[in-house]
Write a structure and sequence with these properties.
alpha+beta; 192 residues; 6 helices; 6-stranded antiparallel sheet
Length: 192
């Protein structure tokens, strides 16, 4: 599913934007459609990865336009971070997640840590609907239980009131899986 060529294309798109050059042609089937996320992480001097941007879309998109759009949105417009600068690119790792197997959960606990990503919908006090998601690897990487993951999703989605069991039961959960690939800048250069 997700390939190193997908990640390499994201690097090429980002570099073209930052350097003001033309976009390269993708080296993969561009007609396939998936919901997708692009994640940028920066390696520190110890080789530890630190998130620099992660944004995607739950609507299927053809891979060329989807990767092109979200490579830039996640690198330059993730409001949690300052935009990625050209001087950082050599320390980046790109991950592409193609989302599959969407299923409605019976309740907020109807998913498996390490297997499923979760997308929740809930209403804020006042009635406004909010959504929030974590990709499949997040709960496991953080060492969270299912309940802790849901609580973090609620906070991420803007819910500021006390989180009760009754409120957790009111959310709508969709679980999904992801086919993910990573590529460091060093590997990207070696592919050229």
């Amino acid at each position: 599913m997700a390939t190193k060529q997908h990640c390499a294309y994201c690097f090429s798109v980002l570099l073209a934007k930052l350097q003001g050059t033309s976009l390269p042609e993708p080296q993969f089937d561009t007609q396939t459609e998936y919901p997708l996320f692009v994640t940028w992480s920066k390696l520190d001097s110890y080789g530890e990865k630190h998130l620099r941007g992660c944004i995607g879309n739950f609507s299927p998109m053809d891979l060329q336009s989807g990767l092109q759009e979200y490579a830039l949105v996640s690198a330059l417009r993730d409001t949690r971070f300052s935009p990625i600068r050209l001087s950082e690119v050599s320390k980046l790792v790109c991950s592409v997640s193609l989302l599959t197997d969407f299923e409605d959960g019976r309740d907020y606990l109807d998913w498996d840590v390490g297997t499923h990503g979760v997308w929740i919908e809930f209403r804020l006090p006042g009635g406004r609907k909010q959504t929030s998601t974590f990709l499949p690897e997040i709960a496991e990487e953080q060492g969270w239980t299912k309940v802790e993951t849901i609580d973090h999703l609620l906070r991420k989605g803007g819910y500021g009131a006390a989180i009760t069991e009754e409120f957790r039961r009111s959310i709508t959960l969709t679980r999904y899986q992801s086919k993910k690939e990573h590529l460091s800048y060093e590997e990207f250069v070696a592919m050229k």
